[in-house]
Structures are given as structure tokens and as C-alpha cells.
Design a protein that fits this description.
Layout (H helix, E strand, L loop, with lengths): L7 E3 L2 E3 L3 E3 L14 H12 L4 E8 L16 H16 L3 E7 L27 E2 L13 E2 L2 H21 L3 E6 L4 H6 L14 H18 L6 E6 L10 H14 L3 E5 L17 H11 L2 E5 L5 H9 L5 E4 L1 H5 L3 H8 L16
The structure holds flavin mononucleotide.
């Protein structure tokens, strides 16, 4: 019996297996609205057998978008549009999740196939926000130092986005606190130079993350799982690291966050990241052990055997795959076959099940 294909229940939500599609920006939205691309992209991975399909970083406000082409959930029109996607994913016995995000100083950039670095305001870009007026690198503009009123507004935006996500039919909410976006910028002493209660010592740097998680947890139904994606390390000396990640994970657990999606990097432009198969699994394992919280392992997990081993060995509770799912939306159906698990297929495709 494959452990990867065993079910998992978190709060009121049952996942048919431990495979999650990693959130991946598609740069295919118009004014934050999803397009047909999103229905096909997310829908086909639900047909492909993933237990949880996590929608890309979806901005809590227009200024929170990484690029002008990013998805957003700041208005009711968007909520209505997402209902078609969540309805379809559920029709395939999969669970729709959404990653809600604010890009901070890394907002207002070009989509990968349109250019590099910041989009100037005259070309449709906008003033970015950050904990301190320190740019990500020379291709990015200097953010405006966020003040206390802005912080309150951002927390309210996360709350409203989470409530809208529930209304739109998402069964899991993931807070994007990784990859050098706004919350991670507060966590890391390299991007956070503040001298108020949101900067300086570890407790202060974690304050925004804790306040967002606490506010969102209280705003969404008790039965709805809440995940947080954290960058476990900045991969540089004197930056954010795994010890601090364990500290924050404990705090998030106390608040009612259910699972830490354990990623890394993204806040330091020239960091040397030793990417190799499963290179971030160690973080999921450490956080699970030391913070006693469910974790997801992500990063260069590509083969069914590797994924199975991660959950069998107890290094993580779920595996999260990104590019492997871009190459093959039916990765989970193929994995079940390789691991001798007899799983349900969509009836339209049954004649292809061997
Ligand atoms: C096209 C693309 C878009 C991505 N967008 C996001 C995103 O919206 N949010 C996020 O947390 N990570 C994003 N990532 C990172 C992935 O979720 C994942 O963590 C990373 O690709 C490593 O996993 P993999 O080796 O399985 O691809 C993106 C990655 C890719 C390839």
C-alpha cells in the first residue's frame, strides 16, 4: 500500500492523496481576473490525480501583484470568476487551494517573457512597498518604506482576500510568506532595517507574519485548513535561516496554521542555492520534528519513488511538485501505476487506464 496515495485529513478537508500541485504564476490574468488558461491549467492537474491543486500567488491588492499579468483576489468580480475553477477541481475529487500573496518590493516587475526587473510607472507599473527602502537588486526600484497605517491595510487585505477565497470555493488557504515577497522581506534582517516594533529582533521581524496569520485564521471557517509557505533560509550568512524558521513555525502553529510548505530562497539576488534533487526536504523534516507541525516538502521532487520515500520516512506529510506537473499534468496518475496503487480516474479517461 503506497503511503503517497493514502488519504490525509486536515480540519474538515479530506485529501485523497499526499500530492500537491505547487503554486505557479501563469502571468495570464487580465486586471487580476483569471482567463480560460487558468481553467485548463488548474483543471487538467485535477484530472491528473493531484490531491490538492494550489493556485498561483494570487495578489491581495493590485499593488501586491508581482507583475501586471498576475492573478488577484481583491474584488467580487474575481470571486465569481474563480468559482468556475474551484467547482471543476472539486468535480474531479481534488481539493482547490489558493496561495494569497503580496509581492512587496518585488512587485511591479515584467512577466518573464516580457522583460526584466521593474515596470516603470509610465508603462503601467506602480510604486512598490517594502519594510525598508532597500531594493532587491539594481534592476528593481527602491520600495516605499511601509508605515504603520499601510501595515494595517495590508493585514486587512489578507483578511479580505482569505474571506473572498472561501466564498470563491477554495478549501485551503496558503499564506505566501516566502521567496522574497513582502512577509519574507520583514522576516529577513537583510531586507528589514526597521527600528520600530516590526524590525530588529526576531520577535519583531516575525510580527507581520504572525499578525497576518492570526487575522486570517480568525476570519476563515474553523474547518478550513490554513497553510503557510516559508523560505527556510536566505542561503547567505546573517540572513533568515532554519533556526528562525522553526521559531516562526512554532508561533504559526499556536495561532492555528496547519501546515508549513517548506521552500527556501528568493530574497537575496546573488545567493548561491545548492539546488539538487530534494534539496529542500531537509527543511520540511526539521520543521516537522522541531515545531511539531505538518509539513510539505518541495523542490526538485520528480520521481514517484522519491516522493513515496519522503512520506514513508516521515520527512514530510505531503509532497509538492511544480515543474514536474508542468511537464506532465497526469504525473499523479502515472505515479499511482508505478507504485501499484489502484486509484480513481476521471470516467472520460478510463479507457486509457492500464
Ligand atoms: C513557472 C513557475 C511559477 C512559480 N510561481 C510560484 C508562485 O506563484 N508561488 C510560489 O510560492 N512559488 C512559485 N514557484 C515556485 C514553485 O512553486 C516551486 O516551489 C519550485 O518550482 C520548486 O519546485 P519544483 O522543483 O517541483 O518545480 C514557481 C515556479 C515556477 C516554475
Amino acid at each position: 500500500m503506497s503511503r503517497l496515495f493514502s488519504s490525509l485529513k486536515i480540519r474538515n478537508v479530506e485529501f485523497k492523496n499526499r500530492i500537491m500541485v505547487s503554486p505557479m504564476c501563469q502571468y495570464s490574468s487580465i486586471e487580476g481576473m483569471p482567463t480560460d488558461w487558468h481553467i485548463v491549467h488548474l483543471g487538467s492537474r485535477a484530472v491528473g490525480g493531484a490531491g490538492l491543486v494550489m493556485q498561483e500567488a494570487t495578489a491581495v491588492s493590485p499593488e501586491g501583484r508581482i507583475t501586471p499579468d498576475d492573478a488577484g483576489i481583491w474584488n467580487e468580480e474575481q470571486v465569481e470568476a474563480y468559482k468556475k475553477i474551484t467547482g471543476f477541481i472539486k468535480s474531479q475529487n481534488s481539493v482547490p487551494g489558493i496561495q494569497i500573496a503580496h509581492a512587496g518590493r518585488k512587485a511591479s516587475t515584467y512577466s518573464p517573457w516580457k522583460g526584466n526587473g521593474s515596470v516603470p510607472i509610465k508603462d503601467g507599473g506602480w510604486q512598490t512597498l517594502g519594510p525598508s527602502p532597500v531594493s532587491f537588486d539594481e534592476n528593481y526600484t527602491v520600495p516605499k518604506e511601509i508605515n504603520k497605517d499601510d501595515i494595517k491595510e495590508v493585514i486587512e487585505q489578507f483578511k479580505a482576500a482569505a474571506m473572498r477565497s472561501v466564498e470563491a470555493g477554495y478549501s485551503v488557504i496558503e499564506l505566501h510568506m516566502a521567496h522574497g515577497y513582502l512577509v519574507h522581506e520583514f522576516l529577513s534582517p537583510i531586507s528589514n532595517k526597521r527600528e520600530d516594533e516590526y524590525g530588529g529582533n526576531l520577535e519583531n521581524r516575525c510580527r507581520l507574519a504572525v499578525e497576518i496569520a492570526d487575522t486570517v485564521r480568525k476570519a476563515i471557517p474553523n474547518g478550513t485548513p490554513l497553510f503557510a509557505r516559508l523560505s527556510s533560509t536566505d542561503w547567505v550568512d546573517n540572513g533568515w535561516d532554519i533556526e528562525q524558521t522553526v521559531y516562526l513555525s512554532k508561533k504559526l502553529k499556536e495561532i492555528g496554521v496547519d501546515l508549513i510548505d517548506s521552500s527556501s530562497g528568493g530574497n537575496i539576488a546573488n545567493a548561491k542555492i545548492p539546488a539538487s534533487p530534494g534539496y529542500q526536504v531537509q527543511f520540511a523534516e526539521r520543521i516537522k520534528k522541531d515545531a511539531s507541525i505538518l509539513t510539505g516538502a518541495v523542490g526538485l521532487i520528480t520521481s514517484p519513488e522519491q516522493a513515496e520515500q519522503i512520506v514513508v520516512s516521515g520527512q514530510a506529510d505531503i509532497v509538492i511538485l511544480g515543474r514536474a506537473f508542468l511537464r506532465n499534468p497526469y504525473w499523479a496518475l502515472d505515479a499511482a501505476k508505478k507504485l501499484n496503487s489502484d486509484i480513481e480516474w476521471s470516467k472520460q479517461y478510463l479507457r486509457a487506464k492500464l
